[in-house]
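re the bet — no i am not wrong, look at it urself. input seq straight from the record:
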Amino acid sequence: MLRRFVLSAAAGLLLAAPSISSAQSCQTMAGNLVRNCSFELGLVRNGADYPNAVVTGWTPLGNVSSGTFERWTNAFNGFAAQDGNSHLELQVNSPTAIEQILGTTAGNSYTLNFWAAHRPRDNRGFSQIDVYINSVFFASSGRITTPYQWNNVSQTFAASGASTTIEFRSMGNQNSYGDFLDNVSVVTDERIMNNTVPEPSSFALLGTGVALVGFMAHRRRPSCSSRMSRSV
């Protein structure tokens, strides 16, 4: 009975080890190449900054006469950013796009991670963000129809040179509504592994559980004399 109790306690300790969050902040992620990755920098205005938000580190593309992009700050309209206090809406009177040039190493493998969400106008609408690397299609959020819910996209690519241009294009069908973007990161696979190493407290809990199991196994092992006496 005691052994069963200790084994259960050890298993509980193992399960209690902290899990690694899949929504890590790009702002604290070691080695993230993306500048202003959650759109916190620049001339930040409370609420909705429309239609030409000033977002440091990012360049608007295409016909921007009707607006570049809109930044929502401090949970405007009841919808909070996925990371930090701000996020972008890429549909500003017409579909828009943004880009940033990253410093990379040719041949190295990198993982892009970002979050997208949908702002609905009617029940026929959808949001979608497509990603281009060096002007070549790379990844997509796909059609998002569930309103106000962040969706994660993660995909790996190999850099072809010392710089890599990453572009996010709004592809939704609701002009001036939708295509939210936030928490963007590009890191090497090595950095991803370093960012997901369990904390020391996790190792301590694992060690405690293993030690308890080993101790009880030792206590329950019969001595040589007792085995001989039982065999007589």
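see?? The radius of gyration is 25 Å. told u. also The chain has a mean pLDDT of 81. so pay up
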